[in-house]
Every structure is written in structure tokens, then in C-alpha cells.
């Protein structure tokens, strides 16, 4: 009960902060030996990928970041050789936290996102952490998944940037490769409410592994497509924060009222 209250309080605090502020396929499947099949079974990912998926460790090959056409949009290739290898998508050993299979763990201090698998492994993605990505820690669920989402910049951002004035009508930015939310977005909900915390793609691959000035948790577009397919609705998400926080808690203001006492304002 106490934990639920803490989660609800964290969710409401986040709302206050936010408001004020994608390989070749084939129909012929390779045959696996009994030993190989058993090994695959031990590390099957949560979203039940087939036993024919490449289950090796290490960084995804450069082909995983090649250009691709997706639902009418063209995603340019990402120059994987220019990215620190540790931030490329890869399967790793992960035995921290005792999380159950299928849990998504967002490790903001180290700029990683993990999808926990069986057998002590996880699929790891490099992330960039935007301003809002530092604003909240706790547990939530994937409450919604959007394929080529629209982007709705908050009014305070529109007030600050003249180039966003055209979005004041509330219709948002059309989906596309230049959309700040990229090719996919996963929306975190807590106690049935949208936390306003997002896992989303980005056209700015250079920002992976870094702290960014806006957004939440950003992945390269090819990686968010992989994550989108791997993680189902209602998956558990745990967001971990370190000492680095770009969004400070909103200070409590006080004002005097007629009775000469003070009243707190959020």
C-alpha cells in the first residue's frame, strides 16, 4: 500500500514537471542440432523470438543499422563505425537486480536500456537521456506503443522557440524521419495513467550515450524498431537514476494568507 502511494506520488510529480516545461528474411529456416536448440531455449527473449534468430553475444553487425524503408518512410543508414561499440545493440550477461524475464531496465547513469532474458542475459541498447529522462525514477508498464508517432511539443517549448509556432494549433508534427520521436514510441503508464515518460526513436544518432537538452529516453531508430517488436504492452519497466539529475524538484513556494499563517503551493 505504501509502495503504491509512492508510485502515485512519483507519477503526479512527473506530470507537474512535464506540463510546466529498424534484414533480409527467408522462408527457408535453418536446421538446429538438439544442443543448439537447448542453448537457444535458455536465452529466449520475452517477446518470443523464433529459435532461428541470431542468439550470439556482442554488438550487432553494421548491417543492423543499414538504411531501410519502413511503412512508406525511408530511414538513412547509421554510421555504426562512428559510435562507441558499447552503445550498439548487443546481447550481454546481466544478473543484477533479480528482474524477471521481460522486464525493461532503463539505466540512465550508464546510458543503457536492457530487456531481460532467460538464462542471465539481456538485450542491451545504447540510449541518449533527454531533460525529461532525468525527471523520474520508479516502475511503470508499457501502456501504449505507437508506430511512427506524431510529436506534440509542449506549449512552453513553443513559447521558447519561434520555429515551433506552427504547432500551436495542437495538431502536432507529422510522422517521419525528422520527427523527434523517430520511428516508434513506447509510452509508460503507472496506475492506469500516462506518466509522460517515453522510450522513443531519434534521428540524432550522435546523441546516443549522451545527455540531451530535450526528450526522454531516445534510441537510434533502427534500435527502437527492434525494441518495439521485442517488448509487448504491459511489460514492466524499471527506471534507475543516479546522482546526475538535470531536472531538480520543483521548490515549494509559500505565501501569507489572512490568518497570518502560510500555505504551501505546489
CATH homologous superfamily identity: L,D-transpeptidase catalytic domain-like
The largest sheet has its strands arranged as: 1-4-7-6-5-13-9-10-11-12-8
SSE-based structural type: alpha+beta
* Percentage of β-strand residues: 25-35%
End-to-end separation in angstroms reads 24 Å
Low-confidence stretches: 1-52, 245-266
Please tell me the overall pLDDT.
Answer: 76
Largest sheet, in brief, is: 11 strands, mixed
Walkthrough of the structure:
- This protein has 266 residues and is α+β, with helices and mostly antiparallel strands.
- The chain has one domain: L,D-transpeptidase catalytic domain-like (Beta Barrel), CATH 2.40.440.10.
- Helices cover 17% and strands 27% of the residues.
- It is built from 4 helices and 15 strands.
- It has an 11-stranded mixed beta sheet with strand order 1-4-7-6-5-13-9-10-11-12-8. Strands 2-3 form a two-stranded antiparallel sheet. A two-stranded antiparallel ribbon has the order 14-15.
- Strand 2 and strand 3 form a beta hairpin.
- The longest helix is centred in the first third of the chain and has 19 residues.
- The protein starts with a helix and ends with a strand.
Short overview:
This protein has four helices and 15 strands. It is of the alpha+beta class. The two termini are 24 Å apart.
Amino acid at each position: 500500500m505504501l509502495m503504491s502511494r509512492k508510485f502515485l506520488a512519483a507519477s503526479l510529480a512527473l506530470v507537474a514537471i512535464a506540463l510546466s516545461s529498424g534484414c533480409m528474411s527467408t522462408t527457408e529456416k535453418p536446421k538446429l542440432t538438439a544442443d543448439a536448440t537447448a542453448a537457444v531455449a535458455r536465452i529466449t527473449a520475452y517477446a518470443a523470438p523464433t529459435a532461428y534468430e541470431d542468439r550470439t553475444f556482442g554488438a550487432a553487425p553494421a548491417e543492423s543499422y543499414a538504411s531501410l524503408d519502413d511503412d512508406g518512410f525511408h530511414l538513412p543508414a547509421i554510421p555504426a563505425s562512428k559510435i562507441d561499440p558499447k552503445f550498439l545493440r548487443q546481447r550481454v550477461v546481466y544478473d543484477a537486480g533479480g528482474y524477471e524475464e521481460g522486464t525493461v531496465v532503463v539505466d540512465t547513469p550508464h546510458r543503457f536500456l536492457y530487456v531481460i532474458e532467460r538464462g542471465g542475459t539481456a538485450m542491451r541498447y545504447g540510449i541518449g537521456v533527454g531533460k525529461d529522462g532525468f525527471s523520474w525514477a520508479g516502475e511503470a508498464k508499457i501502456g501504449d506503443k505507437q508506430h511512427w508517432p506524431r510529436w506534440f511539443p509542449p506549449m512552453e517549448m513553443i513559447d521558447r522557440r519561434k520555429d515551433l509556432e506552427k504547432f500551436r494549433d495542437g495538431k502536432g508534427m507529422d510522422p517521419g524521419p525528422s520527427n523527434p520521436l523517430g520511428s516508434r514510441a513506447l509510452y509508460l503508464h503507472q496506475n492506469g495513467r500516462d506518466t509522460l515518460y517515453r522510450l522513443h526513436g531519434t534521428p540524432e544518432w550522435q546523441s546516443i550515450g549522451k545527455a540531451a537538452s530535450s526528450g526522454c529516453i531516445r534510441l537510434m531508430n533502427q534500435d527502437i524498431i527492434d525494441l518495439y517488436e521485442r517488448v509487448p504492452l504491459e511489460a514492466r519497466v524499471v527506471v534507475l537514476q543516479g546522482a546526475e539529475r538535470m531536472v531538480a524538484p520543483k521548490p515549494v513556494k509559500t505565501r501569507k494568507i489572512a490568518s497570518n499563517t502560510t500555505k504551501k503551493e505546489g
